[in-house]
Write a structure and sequence with these properties.
The complex is a heterodimer of chains A (496) and B (254). Chain A is α+β, with helices and mostly antiparallel strands. Chain A has 17 helices and 19 strands. In chain A, the strands form four sheets. In chain A, strands 12, 13, 14, 15, 16, 17, 18 and 19 form an eight-stranded antiparallel β-sheet that branches. Chain A starts with 6 loop residues before the first helix and ends in a 17-residue tail after the last helix. By secondary structure, chain B is α/β, with parallel strands linked by helices. Chain B has a single domain, classed as HUPs (Rossmann fold), CATH 3.40.50. Chain B is 28% helix and 26% strand. In chain B, helix 2 packs across helix 6 and helix 4 packs across helix 5. Chain B is globular. The chains are: A alpha+beta (496), B alpha/beta (254). The interface between A and B is medium-sized, with 16 and 15 residues.
Chain lengths: 496, 254
C-alpha cells in the first residue's frame, strides 16, 4: 500500500498475479470438479432439497452483517442432524473441499465468507432445544436455535440466557465467535457460559468436549477443550450442540440515564460503581456525537454530552439500594439529569436512544454503510483511549459516533462511510488499525466481542505474539491438517 | 363487593411451535409438543394482578379447564401473582370436544359459586381463535361485557373499558359484576421469576369436576376433518407483458 509501483515492480506483480490467477483457476476447476463429484453423495445424505446450488442461496450464505464482500460457497447443504453433518464432513474431507459452518449470518467480521469456495453447512434445520434442566440451570441446544427462541421457550421456567449480542444470533454461532453483549459485566460472555459442546471435526469425527451429556457446574477434568472451540470461528470444527448455563430472570429491573461533562467523568463513575460492588447489569456509554445522532433519529432531547445508560437487576429492595448508591456516585462526578424508570414502557423509552444507536449512526449520512470497531482495554485506560480516538476521528475527517460497554472497557466506533468514496474507506481502514494498535499498546485487545474473522488476522499476530500464534497454528494443524475448516479466518495460514 | 376476580387461563400449544396435522387428519399433533399459557390469557392474568397491586380488588383466582397438565398453566398464573387456582378436570374425549360453550357454562357456574366481581379472559385462544368464551359467559350470567380491552380502569362499582374496534377505539362504562376480555395492547405480562415460582408451589389449587357445577359437557359440534393449508406452489416466470396478461386470463384471475 505504501511502496511505489515502479514499472519493473508492476510487471513482476502482474506476472505474479497472472500465475496466481492461473493457479487459482486451476484450483477452481479442480474444486468445481470435486463439487460435482460429491453432489449426489450430498443429496443421498440430506435429501434433494437439502443441497442447493442456486446463486441466490449461495450468495445469502457467503456474507454476514460485516462490510466484507460476499464470498459465496460452491454449494450449500442443509443437514438435519449431527449424523448428517458428520457424513457430509467426511465426504468433504475425502475430496479436499473447504467446510464453512453457517448459523444465522449475523456475524460482524466476515467469518462466513467462503474465500476458497467449498461447502457451506447451513445448520438452520437443526433447531431442537434438548435436555432442559431447570433445577440445574442448564440446557442443550442445536445450532438452529437462536437466543430469542431459547428465551421464549424458557419464559415459564423463570430462567433465561442473558448473553445478548444484539442480533438474534444462533447460540452455537455465538459460541463459535465467543460472543458477548451489553450485560456481560454481570453475566459474563459465552466463554463463561458454555459448559459443553458437541463438535464435528474436519474428518467427520464427532466429539463432546466435556464428555457426552455431562453438565457439572464446574470441572477440573483434563484440557479445557470446550473453551478451545469457543471462539474458534469454525476453524477447528462444526459446533452441533452447545450446553449453556442459565440464570434466573431478574425479579425487577430499573433503567437509568445520566449525562456527564466529560468522558473522564463518565468512565470514572463506571469504575466507582463497579468498585462499590454494585452488581450493575448493564452500563453503556454513548459519546456526544452518538447522543446527537440519537436525538435526531428518535426525536429525543438528551443533553448532547457523554452519557451513561445503566440497568439494574434484582429484588425490589436491592434495586433501591443499587440505584441510590449509583446516583450518589454519578453526582459526585458532576453527573446531571439522572433519570430512572421501573416499569417496562418507561424503561424502554429511556433506553430507546441506546437501542437505536446503530440506525441513528447510519442516519447521520443517508446512503452510507456502517462499520463497527471493537477494541477492549482495561477500565483504567478507557478515558485515555476514547479521548485519543475522538481526536483521531477529527483529524481524519471521519464520522464515528461511539457506543460502548464501558463496564468491560469495550467500545465501538460506529464508522459511517460513503460506499462510493474509496479514499474515505481507506482512511477508515487506517483509522481502525491505529485504534486497534492503540488498544494493544494499552494492554487491551483488538477485538472484545466480534472475533478475528477475515479482517483482524494480522492484528491477532501483533496482539498475542508470534510464539502464541505458533501454538495456535499447531493446534489448527493437529485438528485440521488439510486446512479445510473455514480457511482464511483467524490465522494467516494457507498462504492466504 | 367481594373484590374477587376470576381469570380464565387456557393451556394451548406454544406459539413458537410449528404445528403439524395428524396423518389421519383428525386434528393436530399434541403429544410431546410444547404447551404453554395462551398469550391473551397471560395478558388477562397480568391485568388482574395489576388491579390487585393497585388495591382495587382483593383476590385473583386462576381457573383452567382441562386434563392434569392444566395445573402447570395454573401454576404459571400463580407465579405471576394469582392467589389461588381452580382446576376443572376435563379429560379424554370430553377434553377433545371441549369448546367455548361448555367453558362459559363452567365459568358462569364458578362465578356464582365464588361470588366474583369480575371475570377477565383473553380475547381468544391461539389454537381455535374462537373469540366466544368471554361473550358467552357474559350472556349466560346476564352480565355486561367489555371485550377487546386495551385499557381498563375501575371507577367505584363501574369499570371503564377502552375497546379496540375496527374503526379505532371505543370507550364504554359498564357496571360490575362484568366480563372483560383482554386484547394485545392491554399490558405487557410479567415473567414468572424463580422466587415467585417457589412461592407459587405453596398456593392452593382446588379440584372441581364439571358435574359438581351442574355442567353438561356434551358438544354440539363434531370436527370432521383437519387439513393443512395448501402448499405454496412455485411461481413461474414469463417473458413479456403479453404473456403475463394471457396467463392471468387463463387462470381466471382477470
Amino acid at each position: 500500500m505504501f511502496f511505489v509501483m515502479t514499472p519493473s515492480r508492476r510487471l513482476l506483480s502482474l506476472r505474479r498475479s497472472l500465475v496466481h490467477c492461473r493457479g487459482v483457476s486451476v484450483e477452481n476447476t479442480g474444486r468445481k470438479a470435486a463439487v460435482d463429484r460429491v453432489l449426489s453423495a450430498f443429496r443421498s445424505i440430506c435429501g434433494e432439497d437439502g443441497v442447493s446450488l442456486g446463486e441466490a442461496i449461495r450468495e445469502q450464505h457467503g456474507k454476514d452483517e460485516s462490510v466484507h464482500r460476499c464470498r459465496p460457497p460452491d454449494v450449500v447443504v442443509f443437514p438435519h442432524c449431527v449424523e448428517e453433518v458428520s457424513a457430509l464432513a467426511k465426504i468433504c474431507h475425502d475430496n479436499n473441499l473447504p467446510i464453512i459452518p453457517f448459523g444465522t449470518g449475523t456475524g460482524l467480521e466476515g467469518g462466513v465468507g467462503a474465500v476458497k469456495g467449498g461447502v457451506c453447512f447451513s445448520l438452520r434445520n437443526m433447531e431442537q432445544i434438548l435436555d432442559l434442566h431447570p433445577e440445574d440451570f442448564d440446557v442443550t441446544v442445536e445450532p438452529g436455535v437462536t437466543r430469542k427462541a431459547l428465551n421464549s421457550h424458557l419464559r415459564d421456567t423463570g430462567l433465561w440466557f442473558p448473553v445478548d449480542p444484539g442480533a438474534d444470533a444462533s447460540l452455537c454461532g455465538m459460541a463459535a465467535t465467543s460472543a458477548s453483549g451489553t450485560n456481560a459485566v454481570r453475566y459474563g460472555t459465552m466463554r463463561e457460559n458454555v459448559m459443553n459442546l458437541e463438535v464435528v471435526l474436519s474428518d467427520g469425527t464427532v466429539i463432546h468436549t466435556a464428555g457426552k451429556g455431562r453438565r457439572p457446574r464446574k470441572t477440573s477434568a483434563g484440557y479445557n477443550l470446550t473453551n478451545l472451540f469457543v471462539g474458534s470461528e469454525g476453524t477447528l470444527g462444526i459446533i452441533t450442540k452447545t450446553t449453556l448455563r442459565l440464570y434466573g430472570i431478574p425479579e425487577a429491573m430499573v433503567s437509568a440515564v445520566c449525562s456527564f461533562p466529560s468522558v473522564q467523568a463518565a468512565v470514572d463513575s463506571t469504575v466507582q460503581i463497579l468498585q462499590a460492588g454494585i452488581p450493575i447489569a448493564r452500563i453503556e456509554f454513548l459519546d456526544d456525537v452518538m447522543i446527537d445522532a440519537c436525538n435526531k433519529f428518535s426525536s429525543l432531547s438528551y443533553p448532547v454530552a457523554p452519557t451513561l445508560f445503566l440497568e439494574f437487576h434484582g429484588s425490589e429492595r436491592s434495586l433501591e439500594e443499587q440505584v441510590t448508591m449509583a446516583e450518589e456516585i454519578t453526582q459526585s462526578n458532576e453527573g446531571s439529569d439522572f433519570q430512572w424508570a421501573r416499569d417496562t414502557e418507561t424503561r424502554n423509552r429511556l433506553w430507546k436512544a441506546r437501542h437505536d444507536a446503530w440506525y441513528a449512526a447510519q442516519a447521520l449520512r443517508p446512503g452510507s454503510k456502517a462499520y463497527s470497531t471493537d477494541v477492549c482495554v482495561p477500565l483504567s485506560r478507557l478515558p485515555q483511549i476514547i479521548v485519543e480516538t475522538k481526536k483521531d476521528l477529527l483529524e481524519s475527517r471521519l464520522t464515528g459516533p461511539i457506543a460502548g460497554h464501558v463496564g468491560d472497557g469495550n467500545f465501538h466506533c460506529l464508522m459511517v462511510v460513503d460506499p462510493d468514496d474509496l479514499d474515505e474507506q481507506h482512511r477508515v481502514h487506517l483509522f481502525a488499525e491505529r485504534l486497534a494498535r492503540r488498544a494493544l499498546a494499552l494492554d487491551g485487545t483488538c477485538t472484545g466481542e466480534h472475533g478475528v474473522g477475515l479482517g483482524k488476522r494480522a492484528l491477532l499476530c501483533e496482539e498475542v505474539g508470534p510464539l502464541a500464534i505458533q501454538v495456535m497454528q499447531g493446534l489448527k494443524d493437529s485438528l485440521d491438517p488439510k486446512n479445510l475448516m473455514n480457511p482464511g479466518k483467524i490465522l494467516l495460514n494457507g498462504g492466504f | 363487593m367481594s373484590g374477587r376476580v376470576l381469570v380464565g387461563v387456557k393451556r394451548v400449544i406454544d406459539y413458537a411451535v410449528k404445528i403439524r396435522v395428524k396423518p389421519d387428519n383428525s386434528g393436530v399433533v399434541t403429544d410431546g409438543v410444547k404447551h404453554s399459557m395462551n398469550p391473551f390469557c397471560e395478558i388477562a392474568v397480568e391485568e388482574a394482578v395489576k388491579l390487585k397491586e393497585k388495591k382495587l380488588i382483593k383476590e385473583v383466582v386462576a381457573v383452567s379447564c382441562g386434563p392434569q397438565q392444566s395445573q402447570e398453566t395454573i401454576r404459571t398464573a400463580l407465579a405471576m401473582g394469582a392467589d389461588r387456582g381452580i382446576h376443572v378436570e376435563v379429560s379424554g374425549k370430553d377434553y377433545e370436544t371441549l369448546g367455548p360453550l361448555q367453558v362459559s357454562k363452567i365459568l358462569a357456574a364458578l362465578a356464582k359459586k365464588e361470588d366474583a366481581q369480575l371475570i377477565i379472559l383473553g380475547k381468544q385462544a391461539i389454537d381455535d381463535d374462537c373469540n366466544q368464551t368471554g361473550q358467552m359467559t357474559a350472556a349466560l350470567l346476564d352480565w355486561p361485557q367489555g371485550t377487546f380491552a386495551s385499557e381498563v380502569s375501575m371507577d367505584g362499582a363501574q369499570v371503564k373499558v377502552v375497546r379496540e374496534i375496527d374503526g379505532g377505539l371505543e370507550t364504554i362504562k359498564i357496571n360490575t359484576p362484568a366480563v372483560l376480555t383482554a386484547d394485545l395492547r392491554l399490558n405487557t405480562p410479567r415473567y414468572a421469576t424463580l422466587p415467585n415460582i417457589m412461592k407459587a408451589k405453596k398456593k392452593k389449587i382446588a379440584n372441581v369436576k364439571p358435574a359438581d357445577l351442574g355442567v353438561d359437557l356434551t358438544s354440539r359440534l363434531e370436527v370432521l376433518r383437519v387439513d393443512e393449508p395448501p402448499q405454496r406452489q412455485a411461481g413461474m416466470k414469463v417473458e413479456t407483458v403479453e404473456d403475463l396478461v394471457e396467463k392471468l386470463r387463463d387462470t381466471g384471475m382477470v
